[in-house]
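Build the 3D complex.
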Amino acid sequence: MSFIADLHIHSSFSRATSPDMTLEGIWRWAQLKGITVIGTGDFTHPGWFNEITEKLEPAGNGLYSLKKAYLKQDIPQSCKADVFFMLTGEVSCIYSKDKKTRKVHSILIVPDLATAAKININLSRIGNLKSDGRPIIGLDAKELLKITHDASPDAMFIPAHIWTPHFSVFGAASGFDSLEECFEELTPHIYAVETGLSSDPPMNWRLSCLDNITLVSNSDAHSPAKIGREANIFDGGISYMEMMEAIKTRKGFGGTIEFFPEEGKYHYDGHRNCGICLTPEQTRAYNYICPVCNRHLTIGVMHRVISLADRNHGAKPAGAPGYRSIIPLPEIIAETKKMGPGSKAVLSIYYKVISALGPEFKVLLESPYGDIEKVSDQLTMEAIVRMREGRVYISPGYDGEYGKIKIFEDIERDSIKGQMSLF
Amino acid sequence: MTLDSILQGLNDSQKEAVTHIEEPMLVVAGPGTGKTLTIARRITYILSKGVLPEEILAITFTNRAAKEMKERTELYCGEAIRGIFIGTFHAFGMELIRRLSDINYRLIGRDEQIEILKNLLGGSEKDAQKALNNISRTKNLYDEKAMESNEISKHYQKILNQNGLIDIDDLILLPVELLRNKERAKPVAGRLKYIMIDEYQDINPVQYQLIKRLSGFTPNICAVGDSDQAIYAFRGADVENFLNFEKDFLGAKKVILQENFRSSRVIVGASQSLIKNNKKRIENHIFASTNKDGVPVKVIATTDEREEAWAIVREVEKRMGAMSHYKLMNIRESYDYQEGTYRFSDFAVLYRTNTQVRAIKDAFMDAGIPFKVIGDERYGILKKIGDRIKVYLDNKKGDMTLQEILNDAFCLVEEDDLKGMKNQLVHAYKDIPIEEALHKIILELLLFSSSDAYDPRAEAVTLMTLHMSKGLEFRVVFIAGAEDGLIPYSATWSEKEDYDIEEERRLFYVGMTRAKEELFITYCLNRSSFNRQKNPLPSPFIKEIPKECIEHINSSVKDKNRKKPKQQRLF
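Done.
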């Protein structure tokens, strides 16, 4: 059986997150999106831990379900499905190693509440877990890996969004040049890395050192609608152990669902405040200095990948799982309507489409074009055709600024609309 | 080790201190002058002269200092370190009692002392505490008259004697008595041929008596310290002992370590200008080893405690770089500092009184920056909870669940985060047999409540009182609450004379000299703390720092409109 899992999100107990990131809200949106297994996020936070123990119950497969009392009925019939929670959290390690400040984010995945609690007790001796759902601790990431593994051998430690310039293991600003440099003799316990929004599998395939590492993708969502903007496809049983085995061996791991990496907010180099966006080549030509403010440019993901790559663009290691690139449905609708993706009009079309056809992933990846056109319009259908074929233009993101999607030129949009009006 | 390698890298005065081992010597070691290194090399030098390890004694003030001295000395002398006694006065006293007394004493803690006094007085806990403080004080002051004349004290001591008990103060007082009988003490004390005492400026009268007695067996007494760093008068320490050393120990040599290897020239210069206003001191012209001036001392005026705390947090943030994506998005300040080399443990915030810590803690908490409060009593209660759990374990009440036992044991606490701890403990251990679970939980609680509650692997900003900061160093130091009344401290505003200005100045000096690269001094224009003047004046000590060393920053205006950062939401 094939199902979709998003293992990195944040609750309302994290900074700068939506108050709707409650267990009920996450449960609801997982169904709208078509996600079967969703991370709880933030298990290190005492408040969120309480919510988890209160509202979730073991489902018997190493995963957790929302208790009956909390189930809501406002899910379109077409989307209703079982949702399982996996206990996950993210920790930000800020420390110094080899005389350099390091900032490394990591995802922790654990098989049960006892393991989560053991990690929490350990970490509360080291730092303060209650000021943020994604706590900052002054601990070497390698020690965090050790603590995680000591709490349970079945726990999984995944370096998060590994290319993000400021907060990741390969980050240009405060990361490392290799996993070994960071995790030393414990590196064999790293089975997977999260590629993050600004990179996709082909970019990561350029590093031979990642050939034996599973590339996972998650949303890192801070609000419900962003759940699943990246996700993983599993082919196998829905259970904690089977999923971890799939991540370790890539048997039963069906690949990932990806953002177009250009849309990610650190794809290219530049300065947001100066309005400067540069390709890696241009950055080198400017000698890494911003032509506007004369300060160091923020180096993006593409640049960093090229710096560490030992293969050319286009290489694919044998046996690497595939991937599908998507644009979130609200953004597609927004593009066709020339409105904001959060606007009421867009959301009402969104609900109409998923109520008729099923959850968002089904619409984006599987629904026949005819069906899509029937419940929306020709322009939306055409947009999904182009998305599935990768025929979209995106002006790349840089220095924290998301990339901008362009599926249609204005002229095109009008001509397609024009065709419509002819019939 | 060869002589050359023992002396390698030392300056002339350090060499002198290392090689002068016969006869008494006073080593005046200013801040950052390589005191521990010098002592470590000196011990190694003594060993190289064929002296046995067990003939050497080094006394420190804290366990922390003893540990550091052992580690540093072991680097040079290796295995021999095991034979050398390096420890606190109390540890050494205990050892002497064990070897010199026929009685197998049992050491009692504060709780038991209070219990004894409560029975004796038939009074309240408060009365007992008062009596205990009084007894402790007379013992430390070695005030024999007071000990004799006080009935309670005499009764208390009688009960201890009858039951073979000693209290913590007896650990030093009793050895002084035992050493009185020279003949009897000789086999033990006579073996100690080379004695070093660290932080000699902080010894109290009973400790002084102990040293004096030991000097009856050997002339080789080496006192190391700094009259400018004497800050324990409130515990009965007397800096006069240090100032009088040369009179006390005739023929004593004096060596002054003046080269400061720790701080920038600005910091050394600023602190020297301050301390030279003291009269009670041994003149010592400290100079910086580096030829770099460094950045000026920054003096920041803020509106109130909250803004003061936030001004400190922002300086930390500037140096650490952004700590989360949302900060990157929100803060328009550039981080063009020496970004990329700092760690949280490079920063310390020092303050005069514990009441100041609240606002500072809150700001660091809100900023999500890891910090540790040295001397934090908050977790002390966890040990008590552990003790309560032990009772269940001993009574084996088989009918209670883990949750019920913990609910009951945790009824002492009110803080939310400690209650959260209970929840975590239940979940971590509910699936194993209850007895095993309770054992593990007691261990977990103990780890929290030990004096090193903080995992040594963890890097964090250190928050502590000026008193606690002695002997430590940090790249960046903040002295918070530099206001008249706080430092120099006066208990009430009406009586300004109730403090010893020189002691307060030394305390400020200790704080300043902790800084290696940068020193910040902050003060508030309004302080709302209980018992404090609402609109304090800046500490007079700031004026004692030369103007050219200072950069003034007014942080009080632009922060007025600062939003509460706690729940910033992007959505």
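The longest helix of chain B spans residues 125-140.
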